[in-house]
Every structure is written in structure tokens, then in C-alpha cells.
Amino acid sequence: MSNVIEMTHPLIQHKITRLRDKNTGTAEFSSLVEEIAMLMGYEALKDLPLEEIEIETPIETCKSPVIAGKKLAIVPILRAGLGMVSGVQALVPTAKIGHIGLYRDEVTHIPHEYYCKLPNPISERLIVVTDPMLATGGSAIAAVDFIKQHGGKKIKFMAIIAAPEGLKKLQEAHPDIQIYVGHIDRELNENAYICPGLGDAGDRIFGTK
Ligand SMILES: O=P(O)(O)OC[C@H]1O[C@H](OP(=O)(O)OP(=O)(O)O)[C@H](O)[C@@H]1O
Ligand SMILES: O=c1cc[nH]c(=O)[nH]1
Ligand SMILES: [Mg+2]
């Protein structure tokens, strides 16, 4: 799984355990999602290209590196992916933000699109797609399909928890993207929920259940 990078940092693992706990309430849950996204973003963005510019320090003129190229785009899959935006945005405050609205049908588990607005043009930007949960992979595949249809080429996908089944499908559908996951869990259950997982991420972030 060479294009899948699973996080090993102890802080991320600790925070994921807090997320899994059913007694963790909405305020702590959404803060943890933001913090994990920032820590994962630090890892996912470590190959950002640099260019040297000339600046003046109080002492002398020198050349020093800055991030090169077009501004990054962060694209959350609504709703739950929204909870990860501020964490990545804290690292790259100039990032443009797109949105893709998808919900999973409760019976068929097939994703349905209800919204899509991306920065335009998108073809030259690095695009970081965020969604805490990668279950069957249907939502992730549909989101990357949309981004590619709009011209997106350089895509990284960030999920906090992934099921092996969905990860495999996403890799097969989009072998050219890099996938960053906080933890790969055991399996999906009969309702396509991740086990052990953390329940419904959107409901826990926004307090809707
Ligand atoms: O890999 P999949 O099987 O497609 O499942 C994962 C999707 O399910 C959840 O969203 P949900 O449909 O619950 O929408 P929400 O974020 O609005 O709660 C989650 O945030 C992912 O987007
Ligand atoms: O376990 C799961 C699966 C899909 N969506 C979630 O929020 N949790
Ligand atoms: Mg949900």
C-alpha cells in the first residue's frame, strides 16, 4: 500500500483513542478532530515545493525558502470533513476552501451529491480532501471523481479512520492519489459502519444525535 500513509505519531494515536470513547462529548470531539487534522496535515504537507526568495533580516540580506506555486486547496466532504478544515488551514492560512456535499444513503450506503463548489481554476493546485471517515470508500471515490472532472490533478486524501475495504477500493479507483490515514481499523459491519470506529463522525462533531 505504497500510496497509503498511516500515522504513527503517539499524539495522533492518543487523540484517536479519545475520539473513539463514546463518553467524549461534542466540544472535545470537535477539538480533537481539528487537532488531529493539524497533526496529519503537518505530515501530509511535508513534500510541499519550496522556492528561495531574497529578504532583508535586521542584520543583512539573505535568500530563504517559501512555499512555491499556486495556493493549496482544502476540500472537505460535507458534513464531517468540515471539522478537519480549521486544523489544516492553521498550517496554510492562505489555502482556498472548496466544498463537496455528499451523504450516504442509510440503506444502500451509496453517496448522493448535494453540493459542489471548488476554487477555479483548480488544475495547478495541490488539493487536500478531508473526511474523518473512509468506510466503503464510496464518498471518497465520488469526491475525487468530481475534483478530477473539474480538472484537479494533484490530490491528497486525509481520513482519520479508514476501513480496509474502503481503502482498497479508493486505491483501485484512484491509484494516483496519496491517502493519509490516522488509523486503519478492522472491518465494516453489516450497516457499513467502521469497527471499532468512533460511530457517526458528522453527528458527533455537530452534536446532532
Ligand atoms: O466511505 P463511505 O461508505 O462513503 O462512508 C463515509 C462517509 O460517511 C460519512 O458521511 P455521512 O454520509 O454520514 O454524512 P455526514 O458527514 O453529513 O454525516 C463520512 O463522513 C463519510 O463522508
Ligand atoms: O463508521 C462510520 C461509517 C461512515 N460514516 C461514519 O461517520 N462512521
Ligand atoms: Mg454522518
From TrEMBL:
Keywords: Allosteric enzyme, Glycosyltransferase, GTP-binding, Magnesium, Nucleotide-binding, Transferase. This is Uracil phosphoribosyltransferase. 5-phospho-alpha-D-ribose 1-diphosphate binds at residues 79, 104, 131-139, 200. It is an enzyme of class 2 (transferase). It catalyses: UMP + diphosphate = 5-phospho-alpha-D-ribose 1-diphosphate + uracil. Its cofactor is Mg(2+). It comes from the Bacteria. InterPro entries: PRTase-like, PRTase_dom, Upp_B, UPRT, UPRTase/APRTase. HAMAP family: Upp_B. Allosterically activated by GTP. Residues 8-208 form the Phosphoribosyltransferase domain. It comes from Jingyaoa shaoxingensis. The keyword Amino-acid biosynthesis does not apply. Uracil binds at residues 194, 199-201. One of its GO terms (molecular function) is uracil phosphoribosyltransferase activity. Catalyzes the conversion of uracil and 5-phospho-alpha-D-ribose 1-diphosphate (PRPP) to UMP and diphosphate. Pathway: Pyrimidine metabolism; UMP biosynthesis via salvage pathway; UMP from uracil: step 1/1. The gene is upp. Coiled coil: none annotated. Belongs to the UPRTase family. Binds 1 Mg(2+) ion per subunit. The magnesium is bound as Mg-PRPP. Its EC number is 2.4.2.9.
